[in-house]
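Why does this matter for the project? Reviewers at the last site visit asked to see concrete outputs rather than summary tables. In response, this paragraph embeds two records directly. Each consists of the residue sequence and, immediately after it, the corresponding structure tokens. Nothing has been edited or filtered.
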Amino acid sequence: MTKKPIVYVIEPEGPEEWYHPLEEITDVKFIYPDENFSKEDLRGTIDHSEGLIITSRCAISKEDFSFLKKLKIVAKCGAKPSNVDIEEATRRGVAVSYVPGGNNTSVAEYAVMLILASLRQFITHSQAIQNNVWRASNSFLGLELRDKIVGVIGYGAVGKEVVRKLYGFDCKVIVYDPFTKVEKNQCSYLSQVDDLPSLLKESDVISINCLLTKDTENLISDDEFNLMRKTAIIVNTSRGAIIDEVALIKALKEKTIAGAALDVYSKEPVDSQHPLNNIPNVIMTPHVAAWTVETLFREVSGAVNSTLACLKGETIPGLLNPDFLKFKV
């Protein structure tokens, strides 16, 4: 009897039964790393695997690939991986896949929720009664989204979904994305600017929905904050490193901007000791914008299907590096 290829699922999203389709042709093993589980432990455990299913919390570096001699695919649950050395994977003949569109709805809903929560001071309101506080004539005043200008940075899948969901709030939306054009007259509440400074100067709320790349790392820093309105709020549900956190802390403390709502951070996880915690008008959530049952199931199913397709020699859904075939042994 032919021995089944081994596939490791590292920090599984959702219940293990979601991965059962893999059992058709593979031997599935699950890893739940604790705080003492080192990179060396990981390499030693998965060195004989032919497939890896990972999330954004598990990085596969250039050095890691040298320990994975049998590896055929790294399947990322969710968005394009910034935690995998795709160039090295390609050079070693390893496929890398993701699940396009898996979390669009959840992340876009969460971004709009954070916009509303920031404008209406929802966190303060939700804690008031527990603290025996009631509204007064000079407290708890929020702002409407109506007639505000929302600047959306990044008009990819999530950015487009954010824009679509803002329809009906009677706000105006401006988009900055140097790689995507908004069709003229697509909708009356939407327009596009040609440069980032224009968006920053005009917006009451800024929603970051672009990918993290070398060009977008620290995209928003001191100079950018200084362009924003003092009443502006910035929302980030994309990747933490797109915002220079030192510059953000400075801007908030000096009241260069009015507030921030963050679901992602430059280094994760974060705790109550993070310097952004306890700064007024800051909402911090633990990277949960895509954390819904529906999204996790879509992401797991996509990663499972990509893994099965690779091991069966079929077309791989969500393949990021088709050139891997040139180097495949």
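We now turn to the second protein, recorded in exactly the same manner.
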Amino acid sequence: MNASSQLQETHTRGLSFVVFFGIFAPLIYFLADLYKFPFFTYFPATGEIFLGWRPFSEESGPAMYWYGWILASTIISSILSVIFTFGITLRTQSLVLLLNLTWLSIFSIVPFLIYSLKFYWK
């Protein structure tokens, strides 16, 4: 394998990872929100951090789950993207087509995320 083809394969694998991550991250974030699966819960009023989901209480104040959801979606999406990057070999043209799915996955999740926040608008 010469240097040019090795560089092309590295570039294609990098693009594959980015494309797969762009597809998986919004979906994993949505599932983490839907099923109450943050890696941790942060209470800014008391500065407490708990692993997993913890409901807010009068003593601890409101909980911030967003940080835990971001961490969950980042780690899980990265693992899935590495698996798909090395498990599926795609041509650059196919990756460019899949790149459009990243926007589709993001925009299709937005209405559901807005709906999941409905209890804030009572």
